[in-house]
Task: inverse folding
């Protein structure tokens, strides 16, 4: 009891929380969860939480941003009643904060609160905040909510935010920042366990197909990897229905960069599709691209052939003939890549 009284006096007299220097207040806000952890739940509830609320309302956006980054960790150290009474009402204003940095910091950390307060409080008080964030004008704010969505859906499920979520993913997939577009397509496999297959196919598969047409090569490559993960999850029938038409389409694209994407996809899904499907539908595409007039296509076809040879022995004779031809190609890089692929198989 004496120890708690001593700590309480120190906290009250320190003055760090309302120091005239915003940098001092920022330092306190930045380490606030550590302070709560150090003094324990009783003082955190009775004394520190009020100080924390003041930091969340600070005049300086940098201080508010630092405090917002700690919000889930602070909420884990105080009781539910205090969160509902003191913190959540403030969040409803912060979601519309003029500073995009504050909103971004809050979006990074707010998804951990439902696990602390439970489904009822989340549905009654936090759901509206998440929906506002999913329509925020700043793409990184929307992305942070989507990236941490599992923390929310584990508590309240997906039904109430499904429409807004799909719309947010769709908008981020065409964002002007290619890094955002890459990040969002890489999150799509996370939603296979949240959406019904019909909903997933209707809304999210089309986003993957569009990303295969992206002008940035790294996004097209990331999408190919995502499609291989989805093929593993959904199986051969899904590949035939959802991926195969796109592979055939882009393999005939006038722009050779998109024809390369067809080879990337095939290389990615070789380990996960059945031999019959590959033989009947995918291998003919590779055979056409091996004869492509663009050397870079033939070069990438060598890599695809190498992947095929490494995963199945059903095409040994055909591969041998193809490598024999490619090793005599007029392009030196194609000849080298064909020789390298053959060695890797052996």
Result:
């Amino acid at each position: 009891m004496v120890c708690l009284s001593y700590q309480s006096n120190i906290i009250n007299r320190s003055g760090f929380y309302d120091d005239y220097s915003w940098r001092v207040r920022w330092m306190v806000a930045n380490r606030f969860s550590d302070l709560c952890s150090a003094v324990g739940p009783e003082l955190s509830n009775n004394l520190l939480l009020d100080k924390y609320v003041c930091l969340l309302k600070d005049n300086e956006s940098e201080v508010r941003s630092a405090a917002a980054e700690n919000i889930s960790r602070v909420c884990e150290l105080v009781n539910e009643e205090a969160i509902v009474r003191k913190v959540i009402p403030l969040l409803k204003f912060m979601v519309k904060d003029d500073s995009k940095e504050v909103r971004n910091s809050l979006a990074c950390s707010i998804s951990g609160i439902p696990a602390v307060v439970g489904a009822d409080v989340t549905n009654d008080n936090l759901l509206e905040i998440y929906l506002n964030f999913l329509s925020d004008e700043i793409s990184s704010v929307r992305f942070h909510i989507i990236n941490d969505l599992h923390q929310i859906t584990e508590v309240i499920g997906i039904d109430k935010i499904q429409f807004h979520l799909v719309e947010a993913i769709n908008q981020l997939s065409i964002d002007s920042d290619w890094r955002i577009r890459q990040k969002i397509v890489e999150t799509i496999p996370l939603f296979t366990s949240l959406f019904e297959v019909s909903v997933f196919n209707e809304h999210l598969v089309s986003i993957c197909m569009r990303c295969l047409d992206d002008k940035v090569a790294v996004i097209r490559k990331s999408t190919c990897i995502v499609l291989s993960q989805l093929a593993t999850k959904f199986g051969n029938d899904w590949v035939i229905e959802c991926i195969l038409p796109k592979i055939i389409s882009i393999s005939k694209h006038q722009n050779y960069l998109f024809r390369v994407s067809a080879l990337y996809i095939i290389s990615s899904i070789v380990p996960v599709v059945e031999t019959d499907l590959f033989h009947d539908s995918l291998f003919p595409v590779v055979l056409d691209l091996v004869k492509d007039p663009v050397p870079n296509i033939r070069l990438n076809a060598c890599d695809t052939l190498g992947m095929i040879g490494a995963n199945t022995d059903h095409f040994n004779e055909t591969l041998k003939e193809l490598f024999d031809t490619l090793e005599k190609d007029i392009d030196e890089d194609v000849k080298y890549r064909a020789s390298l692929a053959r060695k890797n198989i052996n």
